[in-house]
Amino acid sequence: MGSQLFRTKGIDQLISDADAPERRLKRTLGAGSLTALGIGAVIGSGIFTVIGTAIAGQQLTVSSIVNAPLLEYLIHRSPTFGRPGAGPAIALSFLLVAIVCGFAALCYAELASMIPIAGSAYTYTYATLGELVAWIIGWDLILEYAVSNMAVSVGFAAHIVDFLDWFGIHPSLQWITPAYLPAGMADFKGNVLYDPGWHFGFNWPAFLIVMLLTMVLVRGIRESAETNNVMVVVKIAAILIFVSFAARYIQSGNWVPFMPNGWPGVLTGGSIIFFTYIGFDAVSTAAEEARNPRRDLPIGIIASLVICTVLYVGVAVVLTGLVPWQTLTNDAAPVVNTLKRLNLTWVRLAVLIGALVGMISSLLVFQLGQARVWFAMSRDGLLPKIFSRVHPKFRTPDFSTWVAGFLVGIPAGLFDIGTLAELSNIGTLFAFALVAAGVLILRYREPERKRAFRAPGGLLAPIVTILTCLLLMAGLPIMNW
Fold first, then answer.
1. Do residues 416 and 178 make contact, with C-beta atoms less than 8 angstroms apart?
2. 35, 303, 379, 423: which could form a disulfide with 388 (CB 3.0–4.6 Å)?
């Protein structure tokens, strides 16, 4: 029994199974489309939504979550807990995470060039660490993609409200507000709209956008990729407009103190926004739909990470220079709402459109990745066979795609963005650490196997990836653990 749980599936066998005609996916993606998939996943969730929470932090009362005196006693005998904000030093958080992800991206690129199969970290783990660990990391990836998309769809809904406000339309709060708000909700003037806890409501825009994109993904990977390419161009343009125009209104005093919560705030901020960088992970899930995966996957993974890091840091520096960092608490649309406070009307509209488009493309890529992990697990016999069913006309895993849509859409209607963003991070870090371990194992076990890409520096990349992932995991809030 023990040997069966830890048995591995050879790389040659994985590639052979992927070529079976009844489960073969259509190969249509080049290096440019793969890079755009990565950018589409990364830009959207971090810049337009979670960055506010990472900057300002969040303090929650125990009573707002559960009436639990014992829990209150365990958390340092304090009635409040939460996460310290990075403040203006969020730019350092982004750089720290980029360094961690850079080493992890090198590990992903090496394994993707060796094992060009759908499934990402799940497939790599099955080939190196065995069936039990692969089963665990497969579910880990599914939840990672699902929870991050729940957070992004909540951010999308907040931007839809801003867009309707532009035209003087103000929908009822119960149709656009999540049912659970751990810190409550207030308007710009500080008036309390909802007390902390549960209330009657459902975030319909968040649910509906997920279901719409599910239909697009079922139609075909080529159509999805072409749609994503257009959206990537739009949102990059919106980011450049924000940085160039809003930079004129920076007040340098807002950068003082630069690190209001010291390095713990920088570390926690990095842990919170970590999931926003996993776009290059999603690139590897599309391996079986790449025309030349051994060459194009490493290009797509590394290029998307570099481009997004530059854009992230630029937005972080400008945003924290515009308003006091404390004002961004629990804001699911921090960039657009900051422009609204400053009355930068046309810049706000351009960024709002870019944000909406950006989050749609982010949702599109992560929904694609989630379904491909289910597809790969089912093909290996770790999930029912129906999850690896391929649509006879569109050649996409249609059943997995629909299940992924409902799994994300319903919770997105119920929970707030801060709660959802936290839940994704520890899974992402764990996945990265296991991928790095897989590189070490294959370097030792199959040193002669051809690698179209090899992470430079010997064993530096996998070792640094493992250590830094453990460091960032240590910075996650206690409730996340």
1. yes
2. 379
